[in-house]
Structure formats: C-alpha cells, structure tokens
Design brief:
With 309 residues, the chain is of the alpha/beta class. The protein has a 5-stranded mixed beta sheet, with helices on both faces. A 5-stranded mixed beta sheet has the order 9-8-10-7-11. Strands 1-2 form a two-stranded antiparallel ribbon. The longest helix is centred in the first third of the chain and has 23 residues. It is globular. The two termini are 40 Å apart.
Length: 309
C-alpha cells in the first residue's frame, strides 16, 4: 500500500534502473553515485510496499509490479523533459530548446547545413537532434517536431507535406571501373548490391524499389542507411540513396539514371499545442522552406495541412 507522495527523483531512479538493467548503469545515466540510486529505489519500494527489482546474474530483474509501472514513469519523464523545453525561454522570445526527430540519413547528410542557417539567424534556439528510423511520439510530445516519410494520422498533429525526396542507384567510380556500368536493370543481378539486412520495413521497401533483386543478391547487408552510403563511398558496390546525396559526391556515379524509383514522401509534423511557440514555429517554417528546396515539389491536390484522425 502506497504511503505519502512519491518524489520525482525516486521515480527517475526507478526508470533508469528499469531501462539500464543495473544500478551502475542507472547511476551513469543520472550522473549520481550508485548508493544514491540504490537508496532512492529502496525508498520508492517502501512507499509502494512492494519489491521492484530482484538481483540476477545479469544485474537487476524487474518484477511484474515494476513492469506495470514502467510506462507511467516514461510518461512522467517525457512530461518533465517537455516542461524543461517549454520553460527554456521567456514566453514570446525566439529562443529556447526544440527537440527535432529525423531519420539517420536526413540527420547526418541533409540537416547540418540547414540547421547551421537557422543557428546563424536565431542563435537563441537550441536544437536537440534525435536520430532514429523509428517514429517519434509527437502525441506524447517525446519530440517537438518530426521529419517523417509517412503521413501522420493523429488528429492532434499539424503537418506540412514538403515534397518527394528522389532516390537513385549510385556506386563509386572505382567500383564501376572494376565491375563495369550496368546497362539494364537485369544487369544488376551480376553486381555487388548493398542492401538491407533484417529490418522488415526496409526489406519490403527494397523489394518495391528493385523487384527481382532479392536479399540473397545483397553482397553487403546492413539496416543502417548511413552505413549503406558509406559502403558505397568505399567502393563496395551499388546502393540506393537519395539522389541529391549521391550527386553531391563527385566520386559517386549515378547507375541506370533513367530508372524511375519510388521517392520518399516527406512531411514536417508538430503537435498543435506547440505550433504557436515562437521557437517551434520558426524551426517548423525553416524546415519547410529548406527541405522544399531539397525535395521535388508537392503536386496540386496532394495532402497539406492537418490530417484527419
């Protein structure tokens, strides 16, 4: 039976231990001494009147009760982070922290010069850049703005479709000097293809891009898109990449440049409650302008605005 109010610091210690699987990992994550983390978890267990962790050979094993509390603790953690971002600048000022989510390739290859322009114009804005191919949760405000390659469905989100990012096949000039330039799509079967490894969504997308080129044809396999580009730059084979990335590297050459590949529909998305915050609005509009230049324009009649739920 719970007794008294639960301090947020104790909940943070619980969540860190739950996600890290050890007291030492939790201590490193929180920047605390290990005995401090242990005492906070012990205090939380006393208030709840239950055991949250048992010791195992691999560290801490969460009990069933601990597993039932994890989602609530994560929601509190996200709310605390959001509070910090919202409070990071006085109301009305174009300053403070904005958390931005993007895929690894966009974050590494595309965004740096775009964000540099924003920083020059608005030095008071601090960007937290979260790179992942997983979809960030905007409803729970895990991030403030997301660059997505699929349309949002949630009714509380505001979205702007900025265009289609074109894809193409590219290989290093040294690879093509060794293996020759494919003349037709059928010739790809005799080449070293760099492709996905195990990610189901990537495998499905690859099958749509290159029908007839199965996973067994991939001579180099990785689910990391930046790694695929790096392998192509090292002369390891032919890879699918965003056309502007490939064309910007003078040692990469377009392979089958007339082959029409499906593009990546791209949206800038934020929560409707955050859209009016000056720093969020400035970054949102800046991304729309700059990524619209990077992508192929939206055709008339394509989605643009607030999606239906």
């Amino acid at each position: 039976m719970m007794s008294g109010t639960i301090p947020w610091e104790d909940q943070q210690a619980f969540l860190a231990a739950f996600e890290e699987g050890s007291l030492s990992g939790a201590a490193r994550r929180l920047g605390l001494a290990q005995p401090t983390v242990r005492s906070r978890i012990a205090a939380l267990e006393r208030r709840l009147g239950t055991v949250l962790f048992t010791r195992s050979a691999n560290g801490l094993a969460a009990t069933e009760h601990a597993r039932s509390l994890a989602d609530s603790a994560r929601a509190m953690d996200r709310a605390s982070e959001l509070f910090g971002r919202v409070a990071s600048a006085p109301a009305g000022e174009i300053a403070g922290t904005v958390r931005l989510s993007a895929s690894e390739v966009v974050g590494i290859e595309v965004l740096p010069p775009i964000l540099a322009k924003l920083q020059a114009a608005h030095p008071g804005i601090v960007i937290e850049l979260s790179l992942s191919n997983a979809t960030a949760d905007l409803i729970e405000q895990e991030v403030d703005i997301a660059i997505r390659m699929h349309p949002p469905r949630e009714g509380a989100l505001v979205a702007k479709k900025i265009g289609v990012i074109e894809l193409g096949l590219f290989a290093h000039e040294d690879y093509l000097a060794r293996k020759g330039m494919p003349g037709t799509p059928a010739d790809l079967a005799g080449h070293d293809i760099i492709g996905s490894d195990r990610e189901p969504a990537d495998m499905k997308f690859a099958a749509a891009l290159l029908p007839g080129i199965a996973r067994d044809c991939f001579k180099m396999r990785t689910d990391s898109h930046p790694a695929q580009i790096a392998l192509a730059r090292a002369g390891m084979g032919i890879a699918v990449m965003q056309r502007k990335i490939g064309l910007a590297d003078r040692r990469l050459k377009a392979v089958l440049p007339d082959l029409l590949l499906p593009g990546l529909d791209t949206w800038i998305v934020t929560h409707e409650d955050l859209r009016r915050l000056p720093r969020v609005s400035v970054l949102f509009d800046h991304l729309v302008r700059e990524l619209a230049r990077y992508s192929r324009p939206v055709r008339s009649g394509q989605f643009d605005g607030k999606p239906a739920s």
